Structure formats: C-alpha cells, structure tokens
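Hi everyone,

Forwarding the result from last night's run.
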Amino acid sequence: MSTNTNSTVNNAASVAATAGRVLIATIFLLSGISKLSAPAGTIGYIASAGLPFPELAYVAAVGVEVVLATALLLGFQTRVVAAVIAVFSLATAFGFHSNLADQNQFIHFFKNVAIAGGLLQVVAFGAGAYSVDAWRARTGQRVSGRTVSAA
C-alpha cells in the first residue's frame, strides 16, 4: 500500500475507534444520569434483585456508569476502564437479566454480553488516535514510570 492509502486507513480506524468509544460510553452515561435522578428507585430495584448492600451497589454503579464511562468517552486509561466496564456489564447481565425465559430479560442479557464483547475489542486494540491516551503518548507523558502507549 502507498503511504497515502496507509494514512487513509489509519485515519478511518481512528475515527471508527472514537465513534465506538462514544457509542458504548453513551449508554452507560445515560443510565448513570438516570440513576442519579432517582436514587431511591434504583436502590429499591437493586434490593429487589436480591443483591447485598444495595446502597453500596448504587454508588458503585453510578461510579462505573458516570465516571468510568466519561473516561472511556475521552479515551483516558482506556484499556483498563474498558475491562472494568466489561466486567460490570457481565455482572449486571447475570445479576439483573438472568431470567432468560422472559423475552425482555433475554434481550437485555445478551445486549449486556454484546456490550462486553465490544469493550473487549477496546481492551485489545486501545483507544485510537483521538484519545487522551494517544495525546499523552504523543507528548511523552509518563505514568507509573513508563511511557503511555497510544494503541
């Protein structure tokens, strides 16, 4: 391939990586904001699922869905953040949507599994060029004694 073709492919991949991060992060941000607007209802729902410590679970869910989703959106510590959100997605699938005989729960269960799969792609391939991680790598910023990787 010519240099121009490589540049076009790399740019398209970077745009796709950014779009993917934005689309995945959006569902978590919207859910987190919804939880913030109705904490009592959310805590009640968590308790009704039989999970222990519903107040603590609420705080953890809001943290993942607002703080970590924002980090994913920006491409900050992207691989680690995507891995944590993937685990969260699988935990919510099994904790809240495991009644697969109910068609609605069946759909939500596999939606969460699919989101986890998309997040594992982010873990594998990184944030892309349009991210805080890539900016930090370009500027030579170091984290924990090592140079940040843009990929």
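Residues 3-37 form the longest helix (35 residues).

Cheers,
N.
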